[in-house]
UniProtKB/TrEMBL annotation:
GO molecular function: acyltransferase activity; peptidoglycan L,D-transpeptidase activity
Gene3D superfamilies: 2.60.40.3710, 2.60.40.3780, L,D-transpeptidase catalytic domain-like
Protein name, per record: L,D-transpeptidase
Xref: CDD domains: LDT_IgD_like_2 (cd13432), YkuD_like (cd16913)
Gene Ontology BP, a term: peptidoglycan-protein cross-linking
GO cellular component, one term: extracellular region
Keywords recorded for this protein, A-Z: Acyltransferase, Cell shape, Cell wall biogenesis/degradation, Peptidoglycan synthesis, Transferase
Chain ranges of the L,D-TPase catalytic domain: 239-360
Residues annotated as the enzyme's active site: 318 (proton donor/acceptor), 336 (nucleophile)
Pfam families according to UniProt: Big_10, YkuD
Organism taxonomic ancestry: Bacteria, Bacillati, Actinomycetota, Actinomycetes, Pseudonocardiales
Length: 388
C-alpha cells in the first residue's frame, strides 16, 4: 500500500512539471524558436498627380496638380526638358500643389513629389507626361489696339491668320468686360474673323477690356491657338455723321444735337455702281492725303486731302475742290462724300476711328462684303452668326 501511494504522488508531480513547462514555452516563443515577426503597416499617405504618369497629348492649358491624402506635401517639382521648374503653389492645407503657368507645346515634363503622412511616414511619387504638339499654331490679333480712343460704332475684331474650324471653341475663349453694362454679341464674319458689337451704339466714355485666351485652344484639324491676346480701350464722345444723299448735306451730331453741317456732293444718283450706298458704316482710317486710283473710270494717282475711309468698298469722306461747283448742289462723285477743303479739314479733325456714318437716300445699298460691315446687319441677323 505504501509503494502504490508513493507512485501516484510521483506521477502527479511529473504532470505538474509538464504543465509548467508548456505554459512557459507559449509565453517565450520568438524567432529563435521558429516564430515570424508581424509585418510593418504601409504608409497612410497616398500621392497622386494629374496628368497621370505617361499621359500623352496633354492640353497645355491643363494645370498640373499633385495631391496627397492622409498627409501634407513637403516638396513638389515639375520640370521641363531644360530642367526649368514649372511655377506653382500649395493650398493652405498643403494637400494640393497646382501649377500657375501654362505648359509648352510638344514638351515632356517630369514631376517628383514628397509628402509626410499623418502616421509620420514619408512617401514619394515620380512620373512624366507629354503635351500635345500642334499641326499648326494659329495667331490672332485684336482691334482696337491698347489705349485707343474710338467712336461709339467701333466693333471689337479678332482676326486669325488661318481658318478656324471649331468656331465655338475659339469664341468661348473670348471675353468682353465693360465699365458700364452694354448688351452685345459675337458674330463670325468669316472663318478668320469674329467681331463683337453692341446692340446699339456704345455709351460714350465706356472703358472696355478684351481677353482672347486662345493659347492651347484646339481650333480643329490639329491646329491650336498660338498665344493669348488682350486689349483695353475707351469709347470717346458720341459723334455720328448723317448723310441723306439727295439733300447734298453732311450733318454731324454730338449726342442728340447737331454740331456741324457741311455742303457735300455724293455718288452719282443715276448709276448704282457710283452711288454713295445706303447703310451704317464707320470711320475706318484717317489720311491727311490719300491717293485714289480707278482705271475703270479713267483716273489714277489722284491726291485728295483730309480723307476718312468709311468702307472697304471704296467710299471716303474727303476734300474735292475740283468738284466745288457741285458741292451742295448735285451728286457727281464716284461714291465718296466730297467736301470743300476747309470743311473736310474741320470734319477730319473732329473724327475718331469708329465714328458711325449713316447714309440714306441712295438707289443702292452698301454690300456686306467688307470686313467692317457690322452695322449693315440687323441685330437678329448679327446674333445668328454667333457660334455659341
Amino acid at each position: 500500500m505504501i509503494e502504490r501511494r508513493t507512485l501516484m504522488k510521483g506521477v502527479a508531480a511529473a504532470g505538474s512539471a509538464v504543465l509548467v513547462a508548456a505554459c512557459s514555452g507559449d509565453g517565450d516563443a520568438g524567432p529563435a524558436d521558429g516564430g515570424v515577426p508581424a509585418p510593418e503597416a504601409p504608409p497612410k499617405a497616398v500621392l497622386t498627380a494629374e496628368p497621370a504618369a505617361n499621359a500623352t497629348d496633354v492640353s497645355v492649358r491643363t494645370p498640373v496638380t499633385v495631391t496627397v491624402a492622409e498627409g501634407t506635401l513637403a516638396e513638389v517639382k515639375v520640370t521641363n526638358p531644360d530642367g526649368e521648374e514649372l511655377p506653382g503653389g500649395l493650398n493652405p492645407e498643403k494637400t494640393v500643389w497646382t501649377s500657375s503657368e501654362p505648359l509648352g507645346y510638344g514638351k515632356s515634363y517630369t514631376y517628383a513629389a514628397k509628402a509626410d503622412g499623418s502616421d509620420g511616414k514619408p512617401v514619394e511619387l515620380t512620373g512624366e507626361f507629354a503635351t500635345v504638339k500642334p499641326g499648326k499654331e494659329i495667331r490672332a490679333t485684336l482691334n482696337p489696339s491698347d489705349d485707343a480712343e474710338v467712336g461709339v460704332g467701333m466693333p471689337v475684331s479678332v482676326k486669325f491668320d488661318a481658318a478656324v474650324k471649331d468656331r465655338k471653341a475659339a469664341q468661348e475663349a473670348l471675353k468682353i468686360e465693360t465699365s458700364t453694362e452694354v448688351e452685345g454679341a459675337w458674330a463670325w464674319l468669316s472663318d478668320r474673323q469674329c467681331n463683337w458689337r453692341p446692340k446699339e451704339y456704345w455709351p460714350e466714355n465706356t472703358e472696355v477690356n478684351v481677353s482672347a485666351n486662345l493659347y492651347g485652344v484646339h481650333y480643329g484639324g490639329g491646329n491650336y491657338g498660338k498665344a493669348d491676346v488682350t486689349t483695353k480701350f475707351t469709347i470717346g464722345r458720341n459723334q455720328v455723321v448723317k448723310v441723306n444723299t439727295p439733300d447734298h448735306v453732311m450733318k454731324v451730331y454730338r449726342g442728340d444735337s447737331e454740331s456741324a453741317s457741311y455742303p457735300c456732293s455724293n455718288g452719282k444718283d443715276a448709276d448704282p455702281n457710283l452711288n454713295t450706298p445706303n447703310g451704317t458704316v464707320i470711320v475706318m482710317s484717317k489720311e491727311p492725303t490719300a491717293i485714289f486710283d480707278n482705271a475703270r473710270y479713267g483716273y489714277t494717282n489722284v491726291k485728295k486731302k483730309w480723307a476718312c475711309r468709311i468702307s472697304n468698298h471704296g467710299e471716303f469722306i474727303h476734300e474735292n475742290e475740283e468738284n466745288r461747283g457741285n458741292i451742295g448742289k448735285a451728286n457727281t462723285s464716284h461714291g465718296c462724300v466730297n467736301l470743300l477743303e476747309a470743311d473736310a479739314k474741320a470734319y477730319f479733325d473732329s473724327a475718331l476711328i469708329g465714328d458711325p456714318v449713316e447714309i440714306t437716300g441712295a438707289t443702292a445699298d452698301m454690300p456686306t462684303t467688307s470686313d467692317v460691315m457690322d452695322w449693315l446687319l440687323d441685330w437678329e441677323t448679327w446674333k445668328s452668326k454667333s457660334a455659341v
